[in-house]
Here is the input.
Amino acid sequence: MVAIPSSPPASREVVRTAIVPVTLSGGDYRRAHDAHHVAAGLWDQGVDWVHGEWKVKHNPGKYDIRAFLTSLPREQRPLCAQTTEAIAHDLHEAIKTSRTNRKNGIKVRSPWRKKNCRPLSFSKHFGRRVRSDNKLNLSLGRAIPGIVLGLPAITDSVTGELVSPELWGEIQLCWDQDNRQFSLHIPYSSRRMFSAGKAVTAIDEGIINPMALATWVDGQTINVTIINGREARAIKRQRNKATGRLQSKMSKTKNGSRKHRLVAATKRTKGKTRLQLRDFDHQVARKAANHVIAHKTGRLVAGDVRGIEYKTKQKRRMGRQQLSQFSRGTQVLYLAEKTGLDIEHLNESGSTKTCPVCAARNCPSGRDHRCKVCKFTCHRDALGAINILQEAIHGSYVPIGADVVIRVTYLRDALRWSPVQCNTHRMVQCRKAITLGSAKNQASAGETLSSKAKLAISSTSSLERVPLAAVA
Ligand SMILES: [Zn+2]
Here is the structure.
């Protein structure tokens, strides 16, 4: 059995953001749409003003930007005050980030691009109000009717408890251009388990299996978790086919043949798959994080596959498209976020070719590695992870003993939600608050997983975002 630590791992306060799609009706839709453009115009004016100030050798701070924006006549900004505040803050942050990046040698410009739409912000004290009839009122400024929505029922994806609107942070109403849909982004703080301990876990990243993780349990056993990613590949292939079909149709269009419909269809397809793949990356990272936390890992080491997209020789590439759509960067970022650990990168050359028992070099062709010398047989990705683990501990591929037990657990990624999850997250339409009971995400846990680990998998929600990307 997997050794589950007796003392609970460290937990920390984190900010999560629930994304709730909302459907707005005629008047509300129009007003929200106009307000998004007005907010974008305000941003543009702020950018122009800052550039003008720089020309006269003046460097405006956050409060200067805010003072300029609020000095504009009220008719020019029919928005709630909180949105103006957020624009001043975001613009200042963007300028600061570009300065830091330039200092670090990255070539970037300060904000200059004209925006088409910008999210609207509503805080607890400015802009949003919960009405007595359990509706959410979003203000669009004085003398303009606000937007009225059903009150979304947000549940903490770890505890399953309802998060009351009093505890929400600054919420945003965003427009997804590709999916042509509004959504509410609602941040709330929550406690999350992090990994604490001394064990070393190695990660081997791949395309068919996004992650394989290996950890020594005691001197005699290595636990390996392999997370399968075939469904994500299917989704990508489907998307490429669909966009390819639309592209070929577009190339045949003539004047007046309403090409914009095909453009919109392409965007919709891409937008939809983007959400599905984001969910998939979170699921992979969550399953990997469960392994890491259960084994009390203190050091996370990954084989360095950065740059594989262009380093691999053209002849040997498994199809360039496939490699360029390899989403490892995101998954590793999510894993670091979910475990609270930094990820080290090690050279992984030869890790899938070296036999971990006798150190002979083989050339595996299929998914299984079979050593020609000592007849040791193992899954190829598990073997890669074990070799990286040995390299992380000893500095080279030191053979493991012949009597070491390798326990492999296979986890399948699941892209579709269970009916329970669908109901739980269809919140706006729901008048009543639903508490998240046991939302399974159809993970087929291997038989070696204990019930505790299974519980951790089943309570994983897909509606979580990395705080880094919160101000996207
Ligand atoms: Zn061997």
